[in-house]
Structure formats: C-alpha cells, structure tokens
Amino acid sequence: MKRQKLLVNGERLKNELERFAKFGKTENNGVTRLALSEEDRVARDFFRTCCEELGLAVKVDDMGCMYATLEGVEDKPPILIGSHLDSVKKGGRFDGVLGVLAGLEVVRTLVENNIKPKIPITLVNFTNEEGARFEPSMMASGVLSGKFDKNTMLKKKDSAGITFEEALKSIGYEGEVENRLTEGTAFLELHIEQGPILEKEALSIGVVECVVGMACFDIEITGESDHAGTTPMNMRKDALFAANNLINEIRKVLGSLDEELVFTIGRVNVYPSIHTVIPNKVVFSLEARHKDPNIVSTFKEFVVGLPDLGLNEGCEVKITKLWERDTVWFDTTIVTQVEESAQSLGYTNKRMVSGAGHDAQFIASLVPTAMLFVPSMNGKSHCEEELTTWEECEKGVNVLLDTVLALLSK
Q1: Is residue 397 part of a domain?
Q2: How many domains are there within the chain?
Q3: How far apart are CA 25 and CA 46, in angstroms?
C-alpha cells in the first residue's frame, strides 16, 4: 500500500471531545466518570454507536475492555490504538478520552478517504485505568498482561461496598474472555503529558521512550507520648521531630542524586494528633521515580539505611516497601516512526519519558508499543483545570494517523 499524507478533521475531533466531556460533566467544566458508573456506561454506549456507524465490529472482553475493529485486506494481527474513557473524581476532559477518540478520528479519516487498511485496525477502551473507584489503577490492562489476578480484581470493592464484578454486570459490559487482546502488530497510545515540560519548552509532541521505574515505601517512626507541658526536651522521644530530621535528610540526599530523579512524600499521618501530647508515631510515604534502574536501586538502598543515620531522636524507625515497578521501554522501531512522523509534519518534538503510569506499559509486554504526548497547559491534570488546546490535540492525532499509515505501508 502506498503511503499517503492525510490530515484529520480538527473541528470534528474538537466536537467529539466536547460531546464526551458532557458524560459526567462537573460544575467547573471538568469530568467525573468513574469506572463502571452510569456516566461510564453512557460514554461506552455512545462510543460503541460511533464505531458501529463506521462499520466497525465491536467486542467486549471479560474485564469490560472494548475493541472496535476496522477490517483489513489481510487477516493479520491488528494495529491497536486506544486508552481509557474513565476519569478520576473531578478530573479533566482530555485524560484518557483523547487517546480513544484519537483512534476514532484516525479510522474516520481512513473510511472517508476510502482507504481499506492492509491489516485490521482496532480501537481499544481499557477498563478502569484510573483506579479511582476500584484500586489498583490500570486494572484491566494489568489482568490482560498477567500482572494482576483476575479473580482478585473482580472482588475489589468501591467505597459503597460494590465489587468490580457487580458493577461490570450492572452496566452490561461483562464480555467474553476469548475477546481479550492477546496480540497485535503495534499498540499506539496518544495521551496528554500531565506535566509541564512540553509547554515550557514550546513543543507540540512528546515522543515517549519509556514509563519510568519507581519504588514506594512507608516509613513508620515510633516514639513515646508524654505531656507537652511537663516533659523536658532532653527526655522526649518525639516521633514528629525524628520524622522532620529524616525528611530534611531525604530532601538533601535525593535532591543531589540525579537531576531527573523525582521524589515525593505524599502522605503524612501523626498520632495521636493532639496539640498537648507529644507525638508517639508518625507514618509517611516516600516514592521516587527514574528511568535508570541503578538510580532507583540507589534510592532503595538509601531508604533502607534511614534507621542507621542517627537522626531518630531515640525513636524506632521501621521501613516497609509498598511496591515497585521496573522501567518499561517502548519498541524502538515504533518510537522512531512516531518521531519521524512528527518531524515530517513539521511539528516541534522531543523524546521524553513518562513519569505517570499508562495502560501502554502493561500492553508493551504483549504487543510492540509506543506512546506520544501532547502538551498540558500549566502541567495540570487529574483536575478540572486540565486543558490542552484544540490545535495541539489535532497535531497529536495527525502524528498518530501518519504513524499508522507508515506502519501499514511496511
């Protein structure tokens, strides 16, 4: 098949994104569309309708993932394009849904130009990427890739005590296990960056090379509670003072380890949390992310050694590793093609990494995979202020289309 230069219909893409933003729209122009909710069902139903109107065959697997396939000339593993339709509570209008509708626009462009692809193209909506209603995030793609146990995931409950399995059945999206994604020629996921780099550097396209590795720990400090007014300072075992010492040391050491290392203390609990009582326990989380496994390993060694630094104020320090993941590198051939497509369209771009997790990182173990980013204004995401300009959305989908056409021509 001869490769053609086509551009997508930006106005149509905009209208479709605005239409889906109504499914779960919040007062401040955001979206609450939790996985397997009524809002999610409505979005899924409409997506199915859009696909069937194009003549696509729509199937659903046992985790509720949707697959809409445009038939190819040859019966070979498809090019897969997709992301997710669910959101966090009071999230944005672009996270996930842009990647799903980008695939829809690519297929619409092919159909209206009477282009029947050499091999099938399948659009994918992964269930419960966010993990906002049922933990963990990327649940369905995790099951597909063997990272999570299906039966365990089906029993996960939301805050109202409803299980994932119950919710899946209630919205009518419990499909068949034989419909699962198991193979493909390529998987492409377009996503908003969810960070400030592209906008700061005035770039339109991020060519994503990997999803970075990370490790997350709980650090528990146990001291003794005493009266805040009667206990001399030199006789205290103040867990919060010990925590403060350790946090200062963490920032100093990790801040000088590598400029690309990002680390966060996102949760701190102090007990008994009474202003007249010396804290007897503090528990805080510490996570760090980096593409280089050696840097992540150095971080882990440092954390394990925190109790031996002499900063404990007489308290006991316990370190518990909660979880970790290795860096997932995407397929170099497809990543290079995404880069070449962006350049051929004249769009400014750079290679970069993803600090956030995406379905692509799990699907990469099944199918050659690549991702591309478009800018997030002010780096905002997972909030109602999330915004990517229509022009940047259109550019991202044009790169996606050009990449698909290039893959079809090989």
Answers
A1: yes
A2: 2
A3: 15
**CA-based R_g, the chain, Å:** 24
Residue 5 lies in a domain: no
Return d(Cα 302, Cα 304) in angstroms, integer.
Answer: 6
Alpha-carbon gap, residue 204 to 227, rounded angstroms: 58
Cα 126 from Cα 366, distance rounded (Å):
15
From 281, 306, 325, give the residue that closes a domain. 325
Q: Report yes or no: 266 and 250 within 8 Å, Cβ to Cβ.
A: no
Query: pLDDT tens, 219-268?
Result: 999 999 999 999 999 999 999 999 999 999 999 999 999 999 999 999 99
Q: List the structure tokens of 56.
A: 């696509």
Strand partners, 145: none
Spatial separation of the C-alpha atoms in residues 224 and 278, rounded to whole Å: 7
pLDDT < 50 stretches in the chain? 1-4
Summarised one tens digit per residue, pLDDT across range 64-99 is 999 999 999 999 999 999 999 999 999 999 999 999
Question: Identity (one letter) of the amino acid at 309?
Answer: L
pLDDT value at residue 5? 78
At which residue do the structure tokens 């659903």 appear? 60
Residue burial 205-219, b: 16+ Cβ < 10 Å; e: rest = bbbbbbbbbbbbbeb
**Integer distance in angstroms from the first to the last C-alpha of the chain?**
8
81-66-387-398 Cα dihedral, nearest 10 degrees: 20
125's enclosing H/E stretch is: strand 121-126
Residue 189 near residue 179 (C-beta atoms within 8 A)? no
Q: What tokens does 316 get?
A: 């006991």
Q: Number of C-alpha atoms within 13 angstroms, CB side, residue 90?
A: 5
Residues 372 and 261 in one domain: no
Give me the residues paired with residue 290 across strands.
Answer: 213
Q: Whole-angstrom Cα distance, residue 99 to residue 117?
A: 20
Instruction: Tell me which residue range forms the domain holding 315.
Output: 213-325
What is the per-residue DSSP string for 358-379? -HHHHHTTTS-EEEEEE--GGG
For residue 230, count CB atoms less than 10 angstroms from its CB and return exposed for 0-12, middle for 13-18, buried for 19 or more.
Answer: exposed
As a whole number of angstroms, the longest Cα–Cα distance in the chain is 84
